[in-house]
Structure formats: C-alpha cells, structure tokens
Amino acid sequence: MKQITLSLGVIALCATSLFAGKDVAPAIEPPAPIPVTPTKPSITPPIGLYLGGGFTYAYNKCQCAPITTQNGTYTPTSKSHTEGFNLRGGYEFNPFIGLEARYLYTPWGDTDKTMKHYGIYLKPSYPVSEKLDLYALLGYGKTDCETLPKNENSFGWGVGASYNFGERIEGKKKGWGVYLEYLRPLHKTGSKKITVDTVSAGLQYNF
C-alpha cells in the first residue's frame, strides 16, 4: 500500500512539473537596430542662365567746361534723344542675387548723336510673386556718345521689373518673360556735367 501511494505521488509531481512548464513564455530577442543614413542639408538650386533683348530710349545731356569769348563766358550744352536696342545676358545664383552683362546701342533719332554702352552689373532681386520680380542694377561700364569729346567710364545704377510666363520650380525660372527698366549708365560731375538716362523694355528667355 505504501508503494502504491508513493508511486501515485511521483506521478502527480511529474504531471505538475510538466503542465507548469507549459506556462513559461519563450525568451524574445530584441530587434536588430536599423542603420540610419544621415541626410544631406538641402541646397537652393541656382536659377541659371538667361538671355534677353529689346528696345531702348536714351536721353543724353552734356554741359562742358565754360568757354570765354569776347561776348562773355558761357557753358556749352549738348542734348540728344536717340532710340535703339539692348542686349543682355546674365546668371542668377539664387532668387536674390545675380550678375548681368549688357550692351546698348541707339543709332536712331537725333542725327549724328549715336550712343553706345557696355558694362557689367550686380543684380539684387526680390521675388514679389511666382511670376513677378523687382530688381536693382549696380555696376560699371563704358559709354560712347557722339555728343561727348571721348569715351567715358562710370558707375551705373538702375531699377526694373521682370515678369516670367513660365513655371518657377524651387525658385528656378523657366521659359519666356518680359522686362521693363530704367538705367543711368553714365553720370559725371566737375568741369563737365554728363548724364545718360535710358529706358528699356524687351523679351527674356530663362534656360
């Protein structure tokens, strides 16, 4: 009888251990870390190259050194109104700054008073909208007028507006546009006062 009781106790103990082992959850391994690739900082793409040309109206005024004659002293003044064309090409590094080279030639209008000018200009810009930009021109150039005794080098400045018909993607303009601007390429004071004022309008293509 004692042997039967001992055998039943051993069987019960084994059964308890067996069922108890089923309640133990298996060990879970932690997930492997995912490698993270560092992202590069975004850089605003350059706007790019543009070329343009159109019509130019020029007004030239030269007050030369005083001349003394038997009738007294007077200051000779020469004025002219001429028309012609302008060519320009530039590169905009971002939506706010660019560099532009230009050429003006006005052979029509007052007889024998042709004006030529070529120079290079820094071009700060401000995009008012997706289509419209306002800009300034600050630079240096050479002006040749038949009303002047010689070619003149001078600081020049101007203001203008451009309207682009194409799309603007991340600041980059594409396609055709128009522009209207005022430029004073020549202004000198001293013994001779010389000013050249121009108004230009034309077409521009952004590559």
Report what the structure shows:
The longest helix is centred in the N-terminal third of the chain and has 21 residues, at 2-22. The protein has 1 helix and 12 strands; from the N terminus they run αββββββββββββ. The mean pLDDT is 80. The strands form 3 sheets. The protein has an 8-stranded antiparallel barrel. Strands 2-3 form a two-stranded antiparallel sheet. 10% of the residues lie in helices and 60% in strands. With 207 residues, the chain is mostly beta strands. The protein is elongated, with a radius of gyration of 40 Å. The chain has one domain: Beta Barrel (Porin), CATH 2.40.160.20.
Short characterization:
This protein is mainly β and 207 residues long.
Mean pLDDT: 80
CATH architecture: Beta Barrel
**Measured on Cα atoms, how large is the radius of gyration?**
40 Å
Relative strand content: over 45%
Name of the CATH first level: Mainly Beta
The overall number of domains is: 1
Strand order of the main beta sheet, please?
Answer: 1-4-5-6-7-8-11-12
**Largest sheet composition:** 8 strands, antiparallel, barrel
Number of discrete helical segments: 1
Span between N and C termini? 106 Å
Poorly predicted runs are none
Helix content: 10-25%
Q: Which structural class should the secondary elements be placed in?
A: mainly beta
What is the topological layout?
Layout (H helix, E strand, L loop, with lengths): L1 H21 L25 E16 L3 E3 L2 E3 L2 E18 L2 E13 L5 E13 L4 E14 L6 E13 L3 E2 L2 E2 L1 E14 L4 E14 L1
Antiparallel strand pairs: 1-4, 1-12, 2-3, 4-5, 5-6, 6-7, 7-8, 8-11, 9-10, 11-12
